[in-house]
Specification:
single chain; alpha/beta; FAD/NAD(P)-binding domain; 2 domains; 7-stranded mixed beta sheet; 5-stranded parallel beta sheet; 16 helices; 20 strands; 34% helix
Length: 492
């Protein structure tokens, strides 16, 4: 079984009777088995026919990932970052298969060695007693289903790995370079020091929460700002308060192991998720299992004025008072935390300026609630799709067409992920009552004993990691292949 002209065919013969499309125009997994018959291709990256000079504004996860995607295709890439040092604040971050597949394809694996954890499962737990009410097995299932792992990692380790890969691939990164103004027609950027830099394309990844912007957000309560967004959209669309915030913290694994009542939680590398009325607590190991990451989401009022660390810690414990005693014991081990207000953006109709020379990417285009753990993954997909769209251009005349295909594809994908993230927040935060009981009953097949479980609902679940349709759409998505498919079926 070999591939000829974009089709699988038998015996190397391009027989119309035996040809099958590699990328069908309709949603299907029916041809996935054919990929196992393909010989493993050497890791050879072809250079784009049209090499561009590209400026990326913002050296967050999305900006650096985009730099990697573009530089590996032969584009000249310069990243400008306003902070005077590179880094990420926060703690853990999830790297689901739809982003891990791309990053490993680009060569990030060597920089992640000894840094990532591959969880066995996601376990949903009842808020009151920690009883398991839902479960999705991640390993080895995600590797088998989606041909990629599901990792968790410390944000700082992830950021450093992307930075090192970007440099290896030839991208340049300039720090202490705050952008004061965009000119989308030239296109060019003007820095705060007055310097002007021109390019063929400017990518605004300036809404991401890097070390500088995250600290600014914590101080003045704002984030995901992008000065390019107004230029692209034509209107000032500020980020919206969601009414929620999250405490982010890490706990020393040895302290957890020292308490026999909670040591069980670090015996296996699971993601554990307690869900209850308006709140949830997500935990998982990071840093090769040496640290324990915690994210505690809770309602936040507009007049919240807690600022000092003692006040924040006391408030955090109060929010989860009466929850599973084991969770409370783990929370008691937190001695420092960051409180992140959660913002999102409404769906915007385009990420591409009319000039086709300035684009939005990442949080500045589609900030979303973190409840699908897909915010960074969407920015990484943005960069992957952009690089592949440009790669498919055979001449400069085709650049505009490819960028518009990229724009249409990414607006649809990211808008849907924004919706899925919001829906998860609703599903997780039911108060006890009919909806909560129906939700838990609909997930029961995931945790029931195999011999006695009622599998009549298998494949459908309020747990979007287990729901067959949602998980395939979310984790099985390949941003590069989707651009290939959209170009393949586009009108000439």
């Amino acid at each position: 079984m070999v591939k000829v002209n974009g089709h699988f065919c038998n015996g190397g013969l391009a027989s119309s009777l035996h040809q099958l499309p590699v990328l069908p125009s309709y949603p299907t997994n029916s041809l996935e088995f054919l990929r196992t018959l393909q010989p493993q291709a050497e890791n050879i990256v072809t250079q784009s026919a049209v090499a561009l000079n590209i400026i990326i504004v913002g050296a967050g996860l999305g900006g650096l990932a985009t730099a990697c995607a573009l530089a590996r295709r032969g584009h000249h890439v310069t990243v400008y970052e306003q902070a005077n040092q590179l880094g990420e604040v926060g703690a853990g971050i999830q790297m689901p298969p739809n982003s891990a597949r791309l990053l490993l394809r680009w060569g990030l694996g060597e920089f992640l060695q000894g840094k990532v954890v591959e969880p066995t499962s996601v376990k949903f737990r009842r808020w009151q007693n920690g009883a398991e009410i839902g479960c999705t097995r991640l390993f080895p299932d995600h590797r088998q289903k989606f041909n990629a792992p599901y990792y968790v990692v410390h944000r700082a380790h992830f950021h450093d790995a992307l930075y090192r890969l970007a440099l290896k691939l030839g991208a340049e990164v300039e720090i202490d370079a705050k952008v004061r103004e965009y000119d989308p027609e030239t296109p060019s950027i003007t820095l705060a020091n007055g310097r002007i830099h021109t390019a063929d394309l400017v990518v605004a990844a300036d809404g991401e929460q890097t070390l500088h912007s995250a600290l600014l957000m914590l101080i003045i309560g704002t984030g995901i700002k992008s000065i390019a967004r107004k230029l692209v959209v034509g209107d000032d669309i500020p980020p919206r308060k969601t009414g929620f915030a999250a405490y982010r913290a890490t706990v020393d694994v040895d302290k957890i192991k020292a308490d026999p009542d909670i040591a069980w939680i670090v015996e296996h590398p699971n993601i554990n998720l307690w869900i209850g009325n308006g709140r949830h607590a997500m935990t998982y190991p990071i840093a090769s299992g040496k640290s324990f990451n915690m994210v505690l989401s809770h309602p936040q009022s507009d007049n919240d004025s807690t600022n000092s660390l003692p006040e924040i810690l006391e408030e955090m414990r109060r929010h989860f008072k009466g929850w599973d005693e084991r969770l409370s014991r783990i929370i008691s081990l937190i001695h420092t935390t960051l409180k992140w207000p959660l913002y999102n953006l409404p769906r915007i109709s385009t990420y591409l300026h009319l000039s086709s020379k300035l684009i939005l990417l990442g949080d500045g285009a589609h900030a979303m609630l973190p409840y699908m753990s897909q915010g960074a993954a969407m920015a990484i997909e943005d960069g992957a799709a952009l690089a592949h769209a440009l790669h498919l251009a055979t001449s400069r005349k085709e650049i505009d067409k490819m960028l518009r295909i990229w724009d249409n594809t990414r607006v649809q994908r990211c808008s849907q992920m924004q919706e899925a993230s919001s829906i998860n927040g609703t599903l997780w935060h039911f108060q006890d009552g009919p909806e909560q009981e129906a939700r838990d009953a609909a997930m029961r097949w995931e945790v029931a004993d195999e011999e006695s479980s009622d599998l009549s609902q298998a494949g459908s679940s309020p747990n979007q990691w287990s729901d067959l349709l949602t998980s395939t759409w979310c984790f099985g998505y390949d941003a590069e292949q989707e651009i290939q498919r959209q170009v393949q079926f586009s009108v000439p």
